[in-house]
Design a protein that fits this description.
It is built from nine helices and seven strands. The protein is an alpha+beta fold. The strands form three sheets. A three-stranded antiparallel beta sheet has the order 3-4-5. A two-stranded antiparallel sheet has the order 1-2.
Length: 248
């Protein structure tokens, strides 16, 4: 799959490195960042050969019917230069972003603009496989799953080991600390932990003083096929041993 033998669409839709595929646990979808899309457009089309601008007169605040926080919606005009036709091709798409707690309207508008830009880029091929649902999240293994035919491309790029068995588990964020905080926040926002999970959290906090590290430990035990009840027993035993040692 040499780059020079690939069509423009194929180069725009070429696989991204594993670390650039992320998982949004709130929206239950896989995605790539606006920065990843920008880099792909610069790489394939060239810096200065594509552009976008927000059509601010179209911006509006939409109140969600389910009582959630309002959402900013705005249209974006996207253009790229077609070297064969020697002219600019332009089209428009809409982006949106929910105004989350602690976020002001300006920040939400910026995110909505990026969302619209990404949608426009997908229309010319960037992340087309992603929008087709070919990149998925394996909940049981807690990792991103890409199509099998990506492996040859990854090997040619030297991005992953040859054996698919040795592909590392993906985090949902490039920064482990940010990823941990997001996972904890997801659990808090969902606010529906089972009774066992609540007990696990409580005992972990007694042992560690906070919940730091719990998500990684919990996911690891899940991969080892350890049930919530078994995890609770493990932590209860550790707490008992610590209390016994302290009172000895």
């Amino acid at each position: 799959m040499a780059d020079e033998a690939m069509s423009l669409f194929e180069r725009l839709n070429a696989p991204f490195p594993y670390s650039e595929y992320q998982y949004d646990s709130f929206g239950d979808r896989c995605y790539i960042s606006g920065q990843s899309v920008t880099e792909r457009l610069n790489e394939v089309l060239g810096v200065g050969f594509w552009k976008y601008q927000g059509l601010y007169e179209t911006e509006k605040i939409v109140q969600e019917p389910n009582g959630k926080n309002p959402r900013v919606k705005i249209y974006v005009e996207f253009s790229f230069y077609n070297s064969e036709l020697k002219e600019w091709i332009t089209f428009i798409d809409v982006g949106s972003e929910q105004i989350k707690p602690g976020m002001n309207e300006g920040d939400a508008t910026k995110s909505a603009l990026t969302d619209a830009m990404k949608k426009c880029a997908s229309r010319i091929g960037v992340g087309s496989d992603l929008y087709k649902g070919m990149i998925t999240w394996d909940k049981q293994r807690q990792m991103i799953v890409v199509p099998d035919h990506y492996q040859r491309y990854y090997q040619e790029k030297g991005w992953v080991p040859k054996s698919t068995d040795s592909i590392p588990q993906l985090s949902t964020d490039k920064n482990p600390a940010t990823n941990r905080k997001k996972t904890e926040l997801t659990q808090k926002l969902k606010n529906k932990p089972s009774s066992l999970q609540s007990q696990i959290q409580n005992i972990w906090k007694q042992l560690a003083g906070n919940l730091e590290g719990l998500d990684e430990w919990y996911q690891k035990k899940q991969q080892e096929r350890v049930t919530d009840q078994q995890m609770l027993s493990i932590l209860q035993k550790k707490l008992h041993e610590r209390n016994s040692a302290a009172s000895a």
